[in-house]
C-alpha cells in the first residue's frame, strides 16, 4: 500500500469541486462529489436522537439505490428545522440531481454548521447551478465542507488488488461537537474498487468502531455526523470477496484512510495544540480497552494536564477507574511516550527533562496496561485550551 | 423547617475544629468532628474503581460500629498509594482515636488533595495531637477540608419533630473532578435526631441520587468522594419510624441540606462564574429526566455558551438528543429562565434584551419539557471558563 498526494477525486471516475455560494461570509460553503457511473455506497450516521434533515434524506436515499453524487453545504446544519427543513433537504437533493443530470435517488446530501437555522434555498439553488464539473477543483470540495476547522483533512492510498491498481481517497471535517457515535463530523471516502454494497457497509460499520468512534474533542455528539463511502468499481478488479487476500488488502486501505482522517479530526479539535493518543493493553476485551482509552482522552482533567504539559498520571488513573470496564486498581502500568510512570499502580521515578520534551511534542501517547487480559484498543483526543473556551464562548447564535 | 446560621457543630453534642498541620503551605488542612456519644452513621462512597485508602478504611469501619469522630485532611488524597497508603490511613485513624480517647472502630477518616502522594505521617501525627476540643473553632473544620474551593459550604436547619427541636448541619467541599457517583467531593452531615442507622442509610442513598449525584463540574469522578452522616440522638425525639410525619419532616430536612450543599459545590466549580440548573419535565421516568438534565449541564458546549451568555438552544437540544433517554425529537419545549426558546422543537421569538439579563445572572435555569410523560428531574453544573483551564493546566504534579 502506498500513500500518495491527491484528492477525493483521485480514484478513477470521480470528480469533485466546491465554491462559495453565500451561506458563509467569504469561505467556500458548497461542494459536490460526482462519479461517472453509479457507485455502491455505504454510510453510518449520528446516534443522536435529534438528527438533522439531510441525515434523514440521505438515509432514505441509501436504502436501495446506488449513489452517483454527493452534495454538501457548510454554514447551516439544517438541524431542528422541522418540516420546512426536511422539504429544503429534499429540494437540495432535487436541485443537485437536475443540475448534474442524474436521478435524485442517486444523490446523497449532507450539511454542517449552525443548528436551528433554515437553509437559504435561493443561495443553495444559485450555488448548485454554478457548479462546473467540466473544470473541477477537487481541493475546493475539501475546503467547502469545513466549519471551525483550521485545515483540510485528506488522505489518498493506492494498492494492487488482483493485478489492478485500486485507489482510495478520504476527506473529512471536524472540529467541535466531536465525540462521534457520529456527530458534527463529516467524512467522505471514494474508491474505484469493485466491491459489493453489503461488504462495503460491513467494513465501514466495523472500522468506524475503532476509528471515527474512538475520537473525542468535547464529548458532544452532534446531530449531523455521517461517514459516506462510494465504490464505483472503475479499477476493474475482480469483485472483492470476503476473507480473501484482496479483501484483507482492501480492509487495510480502509483502516488506514479511516484512522488517518479520525486522527486529523482529533488533532484539529477546536483550540487544540496537540493530538493525544491513548492505547490500552492487557484488557479483557477490545471493547473494554477502547472504552477505557476513550475515557482517558475524554477527561477534561487529562486534557488540561496535557495542555499544561504535566505528566499527571493521577488524572489518568482516575479516568481508568471510572471508565466502567473491568480493572484491578492495584495492577495498572502506565507510560507517557516510552517512560514508565506507574508499575502495578505504584509511581515510578522518571527522567523529568526527557518527559518535558515528550510532552512538548505535537502528539503525546499515553499507554495503559490493565494487566488483566490480552486485548487492546486505541482512542484519540486533543488538549483542552484557552482557545477552546474562546471559540465556543465567543460564538453567538 | 428553618434555616439558621451555624456550623457542623450546631446539632446537640457535636464539636468540630480544624488547624494547619503542614500538608498545605499556609491554609488549614486538618479537621475533626466529634460527638459526645457514639452516633448512628451512614455513608456513600465514590463509584470509581480506583478508591483512595481512607475510603477503604472508613468503609470497613462503618460495617458494624457507631461513629464518634471523623478526622479529615486536605492537601494529600492518599489515593494510589498502595500498601503504605493503607497502613498510613489506619495509622491516622489510630492516632485520632488515641488523642480523642475513643475506640478506633468509631473513627471515620477522609482525605482529599493530590493523588499518588503518601501522607506525611509526622505532620499528620503532630497535627492530630494539637487538636483541642476544649477550645473548638467549628468554622476551622469547614476551612480545613477545602482544596481549590473559593469558599466554605455549609447549611444548618432546624425542625420540631415530635415536640423536640431537631438540628441538622451539613458541610462540603468541591471543586474539580466533580461528577459524583461520588468523587473529589466530601460532605459531612451531622444531626442530633434519633434515627436508626438503617433508616439513615436508606435516606442518604436515596437522596444522594437526586442531589450530590446530579451535579457535575468536569465529568471526572474522583477516587475520594464520600458523604458521611452522623445522627447522635441527643435531640431526644422518639426514634423516627418510616412513613410517619416525623419521617417526612426528617427527609425534608435531609433533602434541603443535601441539595443546598450540592448546588454550592456546582456553583463553586473550578473557574465557574455561574450556577446552571437544568430541570427536565415531561419525561417517561424520573431516572431518565435526571439523566437528560445531567447531560445538559455536563455538555462542554452548553457550559461555554453559558459563559459566553449566549442562549444557544441548539447545543442544549443536541445534549438532550444524545443523553440516551426516550425522547421525541419533534416534541421538545425549552425555556431559559421564563422565556421560551423552543416549542415542539421549533425556535420561538424571544425578547433579546430580557434574555441578556437572564444570562448575566449568577444562576441560570434551563427547563426542557420532553412532552412524552409526567416525570421530572434536576441537575446542577457550572459554566466552563478560561479560569478552569488556568486552574487545571497550571497545576503541576
Automatic annotation (TrEMBL), chains A, B:
InterPro entries: Arg_biosynth_ArgJ (IPR002813), ArgJ-like_dom_sf (IPR016117), ArgJ_beta_C (IPR042195). Its EC number is 2.3.1.35, 2.3.1.1. The keyword Transferase applies. Keywords: Acyltransferase, Amino-acid biosynthesis, Arginine biosynthesis, Autocatalytic cleavage, Cytoplasm, Multifunctional enzyme, Transferase. It catalyses: L-glutamate + acetyl-CoA = N-acetyl-L-glutamate + CoA + H(+); N(2)-acetyl-L-ornithine + L-glutamate = N-acetyl-L-glutamate + L-ornithine. Substrate binds at residues 147, 173, 184, 270, 392, 397. The record marks 112-113 as: Involved in the stabilization of negative charge on the oxyanion by the formation of the oxyanion hole. The active site is at residue 184. The record marks 183-184 as: Cleavage. Pathway: Amino-acid biosynthesis; L-arginine biosynthesis; N(2)-acetyl-L-ornithine from L-glutamate: step 1/4; Amino-acid biosynthesis; L-arginine biosynthesis; L-ornithine and N-acetyl-L-glutamate from L-glutamate and N(2)-acetyl-L-ornithine (cyclic): step 1/1. One of its GO terms (molecular function) is L-glutamate N-acetyltransferase activity, acting on acetyl-L-ornithine as donor. CDD domains: OAT. It is found in: Cytoplasm. Heterotetramer of two alpha and two beta chains. Catalyzes two activities which are involved in the cyclic version of arginine biosynthesis: the synthesis of N-acetylglutamate from glutamate and acetyl-CoA as the acetyl donor, and of ornithine by transacetylation between N(2)-acetylornithine and glutamate. PANTHER family: ARGININE BIOSYNTHESIS BIFUNCTIONAL PROTEIN ARGJ (PTHR23100), ARGININE BIOSYNTHESIS BIFUNCTIONAL PROTEIN ARGJ, MITOCHONDRIAL (PTHR23100:SF0). NCBIfam families: ArgJ, PRK05388.1. Belongs to the ArgJ family. This is Arginine biosynthesis bifunctional protein ArgJ. It comes from Enterococcus xiangfangensis. The lineage of its organism: Bacteria, Bacillati, Bacillota, Bacilli, Lactobacillales. The gene is argJ.
